[in-house]
Amino acid sequence: MVQTYSSNEIQKIKIKDFELLESNSGKKKFIKDYFSNKATVIMFICNHCPYVKHINTELVRLANDYIQKGVSFLAINSNDIEKYPEDSPEIMKEISHKLRYSFPYFFDETQEVAKYYGAKCTPEFFIFNATGDLCYHGQLDDSRPNNKIPVTGSDVRNVLEKLLSKREIKKTTKPSCGCNIKWKK
Q1: Of 39, 79, 67, 31, the residue nearest 178 (C-alpha)
Q2: DSSP class of residue 133?
Q3: Which of 40, 57, 124, 156 to pair with 11, CA 20 to 30 A apart?
Q4: What is the pLDDT of residues 102-130, one digit of tens each?
């Protein structure tokens, strides 16, 4: 595990469609089919990262709270599974069922999605508004394994509340900290 921080630059990217393997169905699907006309949260996660394991319960709670309000959540694993077989789509499916993910969990085999969004670590969050503009990039909250700060999802929740109430939102970033994405050579 290499502790890595996401970028603190405000990126000028739009939400973009890709066709990826959705681990629960075992079929390739277009991620745009999961975009919302209110807000879309794209999360880069994986199976083995202790930072992701630390927040998994809150990820499920957060998604369950906001999916019913029209927000969509998509999880993407971009790790090299030859070097990290525990991040394979088969194990992604097991984890998704075990933890009761209410969102699709996609596998980015070519790593082109992570490269497009500039993802650097797991977990890392990208929140897009109804028109597909990036509003937030970064962490779930200030909690980390062993820092004794409760996992609340406060940073993501605050952005989603502003988007849902149609308040003006300034593009923000709050760097995430986690395991580096396991890039292919």
Answers
A1: 79
A2: B
A3: 57
A4: 999 999 999 999 999 999 999 999 999 99
- 3 state DSSP class of 38: coil
Q: Is 73 helix (H, G, I), strand (E, B) or coil?
A: strand
**Secondary-structure percent of the chain, ordered helix, strand, coil, rounded to 5:** 30, 25, 45
Give the residue extent of every domain in the chain: 3-180
Angstrom distance (rounded) from CA 13 to CA 132: 9
Please enumerate in sequence order all residues whose Cβ is within 8 A of that of 168, keeping only pairs 6 or more positions apart, or say none.
Answer: 162
∠ Cα 125 19 13 (to 5°): 40
Residue 143: phi and psi, rounded to 5, are -75, 140
Rounded CA separation 76/69 (Å) = 22
The 10s digit of each residue's pLDDT in 21-79 is: 999 999 999 999 999 999 999 999 999 999 999 999 999 999 999 999 999 999 999 99
Single-letter amino acid, residue 127 = I
Look up residue 77 and give its two tokens. Answer: 């694993």
Q: What are the helix (H) ranges across 42-107?
A: 50-67, 89-99
Q: How far is the C-alpha of 30 from the C-alpha of 19, rounded, in Å?
A: 4
What CATH number was assigned to the domain covering residues 3-180? 3.40.30.10
pTM tops 0.90, yes or no: yes
